[in-house]
Amino acid sequence: VYGPLHVLQSYRMNDVKTSLPIIFFKLKRSIVGFLPVLSWLPRYSIWDYGMPDLISGISVGIMHLPQGMAYALLASLPPVFGLYTSLYPPLIYFIFGTSRHISIGTFTILSIMIGSVTERLAPDSDFLIYNGTNVTEEVDIISRDFYRVQVAAAATVLGGLIQVVLGLVQFGFVGTYLSEPLVRGYTTAASAHAVVAQLKYILGVSPKRFSGPLSIVYTLADLFMLLPETHLPTLLASVVSIVVLITAKELNTALRQKLLVPIPIVVATVISFYTRLSKTYKISVVGEIPSGLQPPSIPNASVFSEVVLDAFAMAIVGYAISISLGKTFALKHGYKVDSNQELVALGLSNTFGGFFQCFSVCSSMSRSLIQESTGGKTQIAGVVSGVIVLVTVLKLGSLFQELPKAVLAAIVFVNLKGMFKQYYDIVTLWRSSKIDLLIWLVTYVSTVLFNLDMGLGASMGFALLTVIFRTQRLESFPISNLSAVFLTTVICSILLLHHV
Asked: Which residues form the SLC26A/SulP transporter domain (predicted)?
């Protein structure tokens, strides 16, 4: 005869037997959710995916080389740090990311945002060389660049940590409330900043550096005053490079061949080396690219308080760009991306990269399109592209030392072609939605005039006002919009507080 105690113990044993598989299942799901690579890598088919991923990775890796060095100039850093930024973050995203097609690395917008921080905290005026009682016009470039790398790394690590925290607390929905007109207006304005930043390399002049509101206006005025001092050999090299690059892109589109940026880069390097452009015509070149990798270093924590608001802005912008691109490819190819895990993956890519002197990264439209159109199936393509960059850094870096900076500036110009087309949004939005057009215009004007961080805060604040205007009455205000209002208000307050 079984007593009550025995029956109770039997129930408990059955509960344990039933609950153990559930616990293991939940644990496995949590691990795979945090490490998405475990969900597909064990089932990876070399026969089906190996060759497409290899071809795609090589194509993207070749694009990483010129873009990395060119966007490092946008960030006001030595070109070699653009190569480091094209190496480490894609390897981290391979482990933690959920998108199969986006290419993580340098991107125009974030490079400009990093450049505004490095130039604000490490201006040339702080590194003038003293000679006795007189101050020469010469700048201690080595010391300046060393500190700028520290500033960029600190901002990158801090931005990455912010992204990780937002992802862990399920704040991936934040990208949903950055409307398309706002994002497109913001990226179009950022491209205007990129063009102005590259004009000094195109013209071969040295304008004064300005920061803060209306800095783009002051810079353009200074460039206009310096036009009579334009270095003609540099201008000629720039124009020829732009023409060749545009021609190569158009041929690539027409013939559907993937011979894009590398050919002009190689030709420019060879011509510069054999004609001694740097010595004969005084054309500024990339200069020494050290072989080998930099050891990891702890970011300068004393800089955190000065870059925290910039890091927050970069974290939001970088995530918004990456998740929108990731969802586009996921919808096209029939899979899903996890918005919260994407925040974590991007944050870890930035955090880990910052310890290796990388600057902020997100997905790149041009490289992601190449990765997808050349047949890339998984993030193995990102690993292959990283290997291409690694070989270049270790063995081939010296080949790019004679590359003119004007060519890198030309690469930035040509890669911004897609963003220049976004000016047509004015016509499209005029026909479809006047309020969206107003959001686009306010975002564009505020970002151009007030700079990237303050422009983002002002544009998000205005977008919030349009939401309130559309709903009109608080009683009919949806709960989802209330959360968006709260989050947007917090973000705007943080960004605008930086300039109060």
From this structure: 53-443
